[in-house]
Each structure stands twice: as structure tokens, then as C-alpha cells.
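lol ok so funny story. i was supposed to be doing the assay writeup but got distracted and ended up predicting the structure for this chain instead. priorities right. anyway since i did it might as well share w the group, maybe its usefull for someone
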Amino acid sequence: MRYGLILASVLALAQPARADTAELARQVQALDARIGKLEGAIQQNQQLLGLLTEVETLKAEIARLRGQAEVQTHQLDTLGKRQNDLYVDLDQRVTDLAKAAKPAPVAAAVQPAAPSSAPAAPVAAAPASAAATPQPDPQLEARAYEAALGHFREANYAGAIAGFKGFLKAYPDSALASNAQYWIGYSYYALKDYKSALAHQQKLVAVYPASAKVPDAQLNIAASQIALDNIDGARKTLEELVAKHPGTNAANIATRRLAAFK
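and the output, tada:
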């Protein structure tokens, strides 16, 4: 009887111990599950950190490339401005030379009347068509050209077009006529009126084939053709420029542009 009571007491004490052990096992399992979730989150965060690092690296690279592009754009703009300034300076020198080469006025030759006993032979009146054509004043001509060139220099391209057209109308036979025609075309190009620029530069090549401005005009023709998406026409123009005017600055530029097409 006594042994039975003792066994019952032991069993009664063992039941809570088993219950505590099961609860501890459940808590351990719960903790293991939470640890697994935390480890997964940490791995995901590490992947996100790696992606963020790559994104920041790419942003830095893009910023660097943008900086290089801005520098190159500025350099191209500067080179273009220097080229325009060079053209303007050359034209200014030509204008100064034209001004210095003003022809001396031609005085009418007067022959003294020699005494003679014979009656003088009647002198036929000169026909009206033989009358001397008045020569334009070279100073006024130079001023008109300089005024139009000044508009171009100030980026007043509409004023430059009007000024050079007026110059050509007043002085069609001027030594600066081909230069004026070139600046008309270039002014239209600066205004992004590529069709008008193309037409006026083609007129220069046709009307003034011996002009020193022809290579530059052909280069501008090719640029207008490119702007109008006529790549084949531009390539043909550049090839013709290189073939007909080798060694010129325009031909050197044309060679580089042809290489860019390949």
C-alpha cells in the first residue's frame, strides 16, 4: 500500500516536468523559425545593399560621361565660333584690301589745238552707248559689305541676309560678291533654314566656280544635306570636295566627316 502511494506521487510530479519540456521544445522551435526569418531578411538586405552600391556606381559613371559630353559640346561650340571668327576675319582683310585698291579717277584726255591753216575736220559725235559707265565708289562698297558682315558677327542672321542681298544687288560685279553669297547661305544655315542654305550655297558654286569660297560652300552644302537627312547626297558632296579641292581646310574637314560615315 505504501509503495503504491509513493509511485503515484512520483508520477504526479513527473507530469508537470513533461509539460514544461514540451513547452520549451515549442519555444525553441519558434525561436528557430524566427532566426530563420531573420537570416533570410539579412541575406535579402545584403543583396539590396549590393544592388544599391551598383546603382550608385552607375550614377557616378553616368555623371562622369555627362561631364565629358558637356566638355566636348563646349569644345565643339568654341571651335565652331573660332572657325566663324576666322572666316569673318579673312573677309574683313579682303574688304580692307578692296578698299585700299581704290582706282584712281581717270581724267579725260585733252589735246591742245594746234594752229593750222587747214580747216579742222569735223569730229563725229560719240554714240551714246560709248559713254563711260560710272564706277561704284569702293569706299561705299566696302562699308556696305562691312555693315552686313557686322550683322553676322553679332548673330543677327536675318539682318546679315538682308544686308548681303542688298550688297549683291548694288554691287553684282564686286570682288566680294561670292563672299556675300556664301554668308547669305551660312546665315540661313545658322537660322536652321537648311533648304534655303542649300539653295544659296549651290548658287555660289554655280555662279562663282572659281571663288575661294567654293570649298567652304560645299562643306556647308553637305552639312545642310545631313540636316535634311540626305546622307547619300552629303557623302557625294564631301567626296567631290575632297577630290576637287585637296589640301584645303574644308577638304580636311570633309575627310574626317567621310570617315565618320563608315
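The two ends are 112 Å apart (CA to CA). The chain is about 75% helix and 0% strand.
back to the writeup now i swear
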